Every structure is written in structure tokens, then in C-alpha cells.
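Protocol step 4 of 6: structure prediction from sequence.
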Amino acid sequence: MRRFTLSIFTASLIIASPALAREQQLEADTIERLNDPVFHDNMVLMMSGFMAAMMDLPIGKFAHAMDKALPEEMRRDGDSPKIDPDATLGDLARNDDPDFDRDAEEKMRRGTAMMGIMASEFGALLPQLKAIGNRMKRRMETTQ
């Protein structure tokens, strides 16, 4: 019976090895891609397009409608800057930070690079995390 069990276990390992190798290769490919500067540039380009579209959203009329909808005690006081009814989200952002567009792109670029760094570090931890998960599973099985 032990030989049969050992044979089944060995056969399972042989069958599972290609799947495990493919999984590890997929993880390595993903980590490599997330660290690729061309991938970073493409992500920043895509996110910049989304950001540009968001910055064109008209917000002035919405801000005025919200101010009118608030109870008197919650409305902006007279010292608050008036918002142009035709203002966009980008207008408001650039009023607070004239370098908003440049700063936003730089933050996107750093964030995309950080994804690669995190993926690399997480990839390095993955074997330990899998081992912890297996130990926890074994312990749970022995307590039931």
C-alpha cells in the first residue's frame, strides 16, 4: 500500500511539475513586465488620457447647485472663492497647483514604477507565503 501511495504521489508530482513551471514562468513574466520602462511609459500614457478626460469634466455648475442645496449653516461663507460656473475639474486643480499636470504625470510614473518594485518584492516572498499557507492548511487538517 505504501508503494502504491508513493507511486501515486510521485505521478502527481510529475504531472503537476509542468503546471507549476508554467505558473512560475507566468509570475516571472508578470514581474518582468511590471519592471519594463516601456510598460511604464504606456501605462502613464493611458492614465494621462484618463486624467485629461476627467480634468475636462465641468464642475462649476455642480458646485453652485450643491451650495444652494446645502442648509444655510453649511454653505460656504463669503470669504470662499467664487467658482466660475463654467469651471472644469482641471481649472480648480490648476488653481490650487499651477504645476498640477506635470506633478500628476510624475506621480503616475512613480506609481507605475512602484508596481514593479512591489511585484518583484512580492514575487521574492511568494515561496515563503506558499509555505506558510501549506503549514496552516496542515495544522487546520490536524485540528479537525
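Step 5 (inspection) to follow. Residues 40-143 form one domain.
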